[in-house]
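Internal QA ticket QA-208
Title: Verify multi-chain structure generation after dependency bump
Assignee: T.L.

Test input:
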Amino acid sequence: MDINGWLKEQMVSAEAYDADGLIDRFLDEMEKGLNGEASSLAMIPSYVGADGQVPADTPVAVIDVGGTNLRVCIARFDGQGDIQLSGFSKQPMPGRDRELTASEFYSVLADALVPLKDEFRQIGFCFSYPAAILPDFDGRLLHWTKEIKIPELVGAPIGAGLLGVLEERGIFGKQVVILNDTVAALLAGMGQGLAFNASSYAGFILGTGTNTAYVERNENIGKLDGYLGEGAQVINVESGGFSAFKRGSLDLQLDTRSENPGGHVFEKAISGAYMGLLALELLQALASEGVFSDGGGAALSIMKDLSTIHIDNLAMDNGGDIGVLGSEAFDAADRETMKTVFMAVVDRAALLTAVNITAAVVKGGAGQDPQRPVCVNIDGSTYYKTYQLADKVQAYLGELLNARGLHIRCIQVDDAPVVGAAIAGLTTFQ
Ligand code: BGC
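Actual output:
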């Protein structure tokens, strides 16, 4: 069987897509989202400011509620602008393995924060889920993504809930600013971007989930003072929601089996929570066509889950954990087919990622001067760790940006969500 031809029919192939057409549709959805028209892109104004003046030696609490982990610490910047962390705790993201109540979730946060209570007044809260930002810098959860199950929190202002639980525990007078992780990444990249005279900024995440923030310069959407310039605002695109692209039948099947059918379908094509599952759908379909050995086909047909990390380790052949894929049920030819399938998933994800980043750069309206590239801070383990993904993204990006005469510089900042949340916590309430 011609596996690559079959993958193309399934739309799981970069060759099945027209990148220029996709960029146009992305831009169209972005514009509609900004104008409040029906769109698959939420385009949420973040209201964060950053004037480059982050106070030194001032402690701030940071909460980082990510897709996989929840981290809490005290952060402060030293005189050189380097971040120092203390009182650090980390645990798996609650609500991923089993459904939780809102109060169980807040208890987890409060338990981690209470021991640090005398060390901070402000909390920078990086919340890696779609949240509408409110005038008091709180965030109202629009819906969950990444398979999280805490249904009571949908629609709730997350910061107010946290402050309420702290007050129940006798802790008063704290302030909290909620920001998306892409907004945090954008802020965290500004130090480096300023140093190379960046013409604008973006934050892109490809980890368990995916998303993009960029700087919009549009008089109608509110002003952000400081070095972003007049009339500028950081927009959380919620690019994982993009749906104006054609998916294959197995993409659709994966979607119907997810926690949020019909939602965040772009994320389901490119992010770490889903690439392994999508590969599994494809492998099971191939198994029913008799492509695998008898033992391999039987083993695949009863699998319920496939982690992106396991199949990625198989593709990379790096001796890392490949989980059940290491079972004797599979022969060498079976594993070769698995690699071919996964690399097609990765290649398509790379093209779609490059389309996404290009659209954000075009929409931001900067980057024409090669001396003043747009600073794109990229974060997320899926982007950096998946076999060949980053290289493929950069190759596609090169083509798409060249054709448009646009220039970017991609950077990486350690602990970007924590750095960005600390900046927001220290600068928002001044
Ligand atoms: C969420 C975004 C987040 C992204 C990356 C998505 O599932 O909707 O808010 O920025 O994941 O963590």
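Spot checks passed. Residues 222-227 have pLDDT under 50 and may be disordered.
Status: verified.
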